[in-house]
Specification:
Elements lengths: L19 H5 L33 H4 L26 H4 L5 E5 L5 E5 L8 E5 L2 E4 H14 L4 E3 L4 E4 L18 E8 L2 E8 L14 E2 L2 E7 L2 E6 L10
Parallel strand pairs: 7-10
Antiparallel strand pairs: 1-2, 2-9, 3-8, 4-6, 5-6, 7-8, 10-11
């Protein structure tokens, strides 16, 4: 993880001494006060339509979603025609998830439609809190043996305990079938859940949905707490 992005505002060119982006290890963004010609600005991609889900795309390789204002060739700015595949978080283009009793423990999150490798499933959301507050809450959650904390960057964390969505109910697994990935989306760090190599066939009405599970991580000083989540295969309902 990295530091929180804060737009640079200074006179003159961006360098290590004056530019807040350079100090934090970020690219300059469209929200910065430096001119569009700044050499430290992220250039975006020039991929063909629907080709932005591989390492060949500079946005995807840098764990960024394509920016509709600067990625003009890949369809990131096209809302009706051929669409870029690397803008799902900012558009809220997620898969259909449902909640049900889990055979692993308590409630579980289930996928109600088919996915392919690297498909975006949903966003992990919750309260955006400081790392100091995450440390404090973590001590309480450790006693309950239940934590929904997720490191967002070196300064902030996401806590889905009180405020979250269906992804918080994904159960633990030693063999996760989806991955959590921190993405830079229009200047903000956001957490996307993506399918792993396993592909799921389309579910018919009488079949049980796929059980969602992936790996969530919280680093706390000298201790690392892992929350494992996966899409485990469940047999059809008899």
């Amino acid at each position: 993880t990295s530091l929180l992005y804060r737009p640079c505002k200074h006179e003159g060119s961006c360098d290590q001494d004056t530019c807040a982006c350079s100090v934090a290890g970020h690219f300059c963004e469209k929200f910065c006060g430096c001119p569009p010609s700044c050499k430290k600005r992220f250039p975006g991609c020039h991929c063909k339509v629907s080709q932005c889900r591989t390492k060949a795309c500079p946005c995807f390789a840098a764990n960024r979603e394509c920016d509709p204002d600067i990625c003009l060739d890949c369809g990131a700015n096209d809302l009706k025609g051929s669409r870029c595949r690397n803008v799902s978080i900012q558009r809220g283009d997620h898969k259909h998830l449902v909640l049900a009793r889990s055979r692993i423990a308590g409630w579980g999150t289930f996928l109600r439609e088919s996915v392919k490798k690297n498909d975006y499933i949903h966003e992990y959301v919750g309260e955006c809190i400081s790392q100091k507050e995450a440390e404090r809450r973590g001590l309480v959650y450790d006693r309950k043996n239940q934590s929904f904390l997720f490191n967002l960057n070196e300064e902030m964390a996401i806590d889905a305990t009180r405020k979250g969505n269906k992804t918080k109910f994904a159960n633990h697994s030693s063999a996760p079938n989806c991955n959590a990935k921190i993405m830079m989306v229009n200047g903000d760090h956001r957490i996307g859940i993506f399918a792993k190599a396993v592909s799921y066939t389309h579910l018919r009405a009488h079949e049980t949905p796929e059980h969602l599970v992936c790996r969530l991580l919280l680093e706390k000083k000298n201790k690392t707490i892992m929350k494992n989540t996966t899409l485990s295969n469940l047999p059809p309902v008899s």
